[in-house]
Amino acid sequence: xxxxxxxxxxxxxxxxxxxxxxxxxxxxxxxxxxxxxxxxxxxxxxxxxxxxxxxxxxxxxxxxxxxxxxxxxxxxxxxxxxxxxxxxxxxxxxxxxxxxxxxxxxxxxxxxxxxxxxxxxxxxxxxxxxxxxxxxxxxxxxxxxxxxxxxxxxxxxxxxxxxxxxxxxxxxxxxxxxxxxxxxxxxxxxxxxxxxxxxxxxxxxxxxxxxxxxxxxxxxxxxxxxxxxxxxxxxxxxxxxxxxxxxxxxxxxxxxxxxxxxxxxxxxxxxxxxxxxxxxxxxxxxxxxxxxxxxxxxxxxxxxxxxxxxxxxxxxxxxxxx
Length: 322
What we know:
This protein is α/β, with parallel strands linked by helices and 322 residues long. Among the domains are: 2-73, Serine Threonine Protein Phosphatase 5, Tetratricopeptide repeat (Alpha Horseshoe); 180-308, Glutaredoxin (3-Layer(aba) Sandwich). Helices cover 39% and strands 9% of the residues. A hairpin with a 2-residue loop joins strand 7 (282-286) and strand 8.
């Protein structure tokens, strides 16, 4: 436990904030009541309210920071901007002197033809006509694209249809392996006080109450981040790939790491993590959806990612919070 905290401090001193976050997540999963861990999480927080909340929680747990502070780990974003000596310099001549004569930036150009009639601006007419044409073209393109997408989507769903691959409702029977299972949210997605444990209605969880701090996107191959933090990632449109290291071979783990690199290059909202309490080798989750696999099926994971990435409740048209 102390080794993770010490290495996290070293990572902060070296400026490696992502490595520090991963080490602190591991330390948190081992002991969520360690005040020093909460204080260092406050050091990492970029939001002022989160920073205050984490450091206050650290003090409530009995942790007293060094009287000299640890601002050496903070980014330079709090440094004041340098004084610009000429920023407020007067542009007027000294008292008693007359201003220099006005010099136009460009020499006057001759006018050709007859000037337009008063009240008529040919440029505005041309711009208006172009605008109308562009709007009509955009409308036609949008309508055509939507029609083609609907046709292609229907054909693709028919071609790729797999028996038993349906979304489940609350009254449906459990989905079989390899099925994309819909698990509706049965409670609010309110924030819990940091460090509070919560019981979820599925493993891995797909919705529910969670901490205000999400887990940084990346790989966690030694220890999983807390579920209360991972659910926040799902709310932000993320996809989490969880595997049981005891049921997955070394070669299959390499395949999963390569798949993570491929998917995160498309959209970085992906987490690859170990999860020893899985009853199956592999599980993929997003907000309210879960895919259980009894083997490492790369194609199935890829399809789940395509269907659910950036689809969290806080996302709008594929744009999600960090």
